[in-house]
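Two quick folds needed for the group meeting slides. Do the first one here.
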Amino acid sequence: MTTRSLSTTPVPTAPPVPRAGQPAPARGACSLAVARLVMAGVFLWAFLDKTFGLGYSTPSGKGWIDGGSPTRGFLGALDHGPFTATLRSWAGNPFADWLFMVGLLGIGLALLLGIGLRVAAVGGVLMLAMMWIAEWPPARHTDHGALTRSTNPLLDYHVVYAVLLVVLAATAAGDRWGLGRWWASLDLVRRAPWLR
């Protein structure tokens, strides 16, 4: 009588799914780092243009440094949505100007350096939500009857940016090409992981 040995063929398994805050696999980490740096560029460019009036969304000579208001043009020109009157009243308010500009700079620097991404995500989502409310994409027409030029009533670039900020924070995207690992090793950040 012969005995046969049963050969066992290894069954392929799926790679483990990283939990929130754990580094993404190497290929994904590079993609997330690129996305983080691009988002840093979005926020820092807006800060620089509004500060110095580089002639894009802020005309030359009308920058914050020249005495212009970073919120007056956007909020003052709102012409539709349920919060138009309230938001227009904030246009040019020094508190709104400072809050907006500090937010743009803080979020942009956090993304550029790869530190404090959780705080940057919360601040960025709040800022983008306020801007979504101000632009009010669900409206098809302005208060004067003209088309709003909204291309999607719910999902516009504010929503895409907000989701991306959350993804960058949840995947520790600052660890690749940033100071995220060093930041996470600080005693303060280890005691208060929400600062990561």
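Then this one, please, same format:
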Amino acid sequence: MQQIYCIPGLGADHRLFSKLKLEAELIPVEYITAESDDTAQSYAAKLLTQIKEENPILMGVSLGGILAIEISKLIPVKKLILISTVKSKGELPPYFSLVDHLPFNISKTASWFKNYGEWLKPFYNKISQEEMELFKSMLIQTPDDFINWGVNAVSHWNNETVTSEYLHIHGTLDLVFPTKWVNNYTEIKNGSHFMVVDKADMIGPIINEELKLITQKSLS
């Protein structure tokens, strides 16, 4: 059975992938402490010690997708599976460039997210109460400093291209990274930024089909 190293999104953990039914062993990549001067590039390098397989398959959601791309610049990867993320700075919505000009200190970002988590529900479309509770549970357990760092790291990401083979899956109702600025992806109709959970039944078969292609390629 193939292995997939899974990198969750900001404010999430391995539970983000719990509803995916995949024909592979999912290996969680755990977030570690980020230094204030870490970039997405330097932080990705710190995650390498958790990846034990040569030429791995990496799957990342949102920030996790960005970090998967950065890891692919450091080691050969068999495939990138990118979900609800962006592949370059050109796919970042313009409002991310405003982070340095916000009328409040970015260090308060995490406390705002945690205190007003319910206000974020529109960004995740019509998720169930159970799924909202999962979202809030993961968010609360994420250190404030890491959330603040992640927002800043995404906003200042300067990647231009992806050189590894990838499968990008993106929802039409993603309000964090709207499809207006995203290119070359497999569309999930009505998929929100949380679709890896609430649209897992649609995403799983797409990934499983990709895994079959990877296996066939390795045998040819």
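Slide caption for protein two: The chain is about 35% helix and 15% strand.
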